[in-house]
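The instructor's notes for this session suggest beginning with a concrete chain rather than abstract definitions. Hand out the sequence below and ask the class to guess, before any prediction is shown, which regions might be ordered.
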Amino acid sequence: GSLLKYLVKNRDILMTSTSTDNDEINQVRSQLLSICLQIGKGMQYIVENNLIHRDLAARNCMIDATGNVKVADFGLSKNVSGNIYFRQQMSSGVKLPIKWMAIESIEDGIFTEKTDIWSFGITVWEVFNEGKTPYGGFSPTCVKTMISDGYRLEAPSNSACNDNIYQKTMLKCWERDPNERPTFAQVVTDIDTLLSNSVGYLDLTL
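After discussion, reveal the predicted structure:
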C-alpha cells in the first residue's frame, strides 16, 4: 500500500516525541532509516537509467507487508539520456507538486537529479514526521516565497530524528546551490552508515 497511508496509520508507534527509552528510539530510527534507504536506492537506480522522477513524495512510494519499499508513480518522469537536465515551461498546464519541488524547479522550471534530491529530503521529512504535509497549511504560492527567502522545514519533533538526519541529510538536500546537494549515491552511503549505527526493528502492522 501507500507509504503515506502507512506512516499515518502507524503514527503512534513511529513518533517518539515523548519517549526517553533509548531502545525504543533506536528501533524507530532504524525502521524509518530503512524506509529512507530503500527510497534512496530506488532513486539511485532511476538516476542510473537516465530518468528524472519529478514527483518523489511519500504518497508516491509503496510499502508491502514485509517492509519492502518501492518508488512508484512515474507520471511526471522524464528520460534525460544525453542531457543532465530537463526544462519545463511553468505555464505548460501540468499540475506540479510545489511543496516537494526544488527552488530552481519552481523559479526556472529546471529538473535534474539534484531537484529529485531536494524532493528526497522532503520525503525523508515526511517519513520522520508521521506523514504530515510539508509546510502545513501554507499555500503553494506562499511556499514559493518562503523557499526563495531561505526558509526551510524545521526538524521533526520525533526523537528518532537526530541532528545527523536533519542537518546532514535533510538540510543538505535543500541547499540553494544544486552543486552543494549530495547525489543519490552519496545519500545512500550516508543513510546506510546512519542505519548501521542504529539497532533493532519494530514489528508494525500494515
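Then share the key points. Residues 22-48 form the longest helix (27 residues). The chain has a mean pLDDT of 87.
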